[in-house]
Design goal:
single chain; 372 residues; alpha+beta; globular
Length: 372
Amino acid sequence: MDKYNQWVACWGNATSITDRREAVYAKDLTLRYPVRMCFDGSKLRFRFSNLTGTEPVTLQKLYADHTPITFGGAHRVTLLPGTEQDSDEVDFPVQRGDMVNISFYLADYTQMNSGTLVTGPLSKGLYAYGDFAEADELPLDLTRHTNWFYFLNTVDVLTSPDNRALVCFGDSITAQSWPDYLAQMVFGGNVSVIRRAVSGTRILRQYDCITYQAYGLKGATRFPIEMRVAGATDVIIQHGINDIIHPVGRDVNPFRPWSDLPTVEEMERGVEEIYVNPARAAGLKVWSGTLLPIYGWRTYNENRETMRQAFNEWQRSSPLFDGCVDFDAAVRSKADPRMFREGFDSGDHLHPSERAYEAMAQAAYSLCLCHQ
């Protein structure tokens, strides 16, 4: 019996609506995404997504290094609006630590509306003007780095059944660095870290205007799609701060009415019904993640702080969860728990610094992975 007989996701991001700028199309462009293999394995497969596109997207000359990625034997794929598609299985022996470059070419005008902005030490892509999908190196004078991950959604490896995936689900806090730091901490073990996060998203609401569409789909829409993760056994859910901080009233912003502000009880019920119950039905362990300090953020007020604290206490104590990753405790000031500790604030009083993201990763590692 082949020791490699289970598909497990080794890399993944969410797919969402990209920021609506003046230019929303690309042509004659090569995208390249380096992905580090976290397991040994014998085959790879790839999921590409046009989930939030409104036009068909055709990807050509798809490669994992120099190995063609095919779809029903074809060397190109057209992704219809609102769809995702898995590639054929590719014979591609890998060892833990190998870097595999996934490249593809956009020949004709292509709507760049399906992608996600992510950051972290393991999350760096490249784009080049021209057709260089088969090139060993992209030409320096035609190439730039990008943190936008377009169309490529998930990479699976056929590996040992001892290996498994942990999903990190959330908003901009999770779209930034802590999942990458966690992946570095667990590297060498039997767990991959799959990030499913979109900046600005909320549990209960979403925006339909072009100003804020990049804030993504609401939880009920996102979760069943993003939890399609081969080999997943656990999910950490760190979501809800945008439900609290976004509404400001139509007199201030026509797209952010006070009616969008939920009660804490509505948030709790949303987490249970939208996230926990489906995750349990899929056989997953579910870990809550507390919301971080917001003191000093531009919409901060005492009512929002009271909501955050109440929601966090519920996450810490609710029997719905297998445990709580207390991110708040990992980054807050001891002198004033409403705010970040010194050196842990990125400067906007909402997003953590890199030091704080490392502390968040350590908190997740200590609770969810250290003793498993």
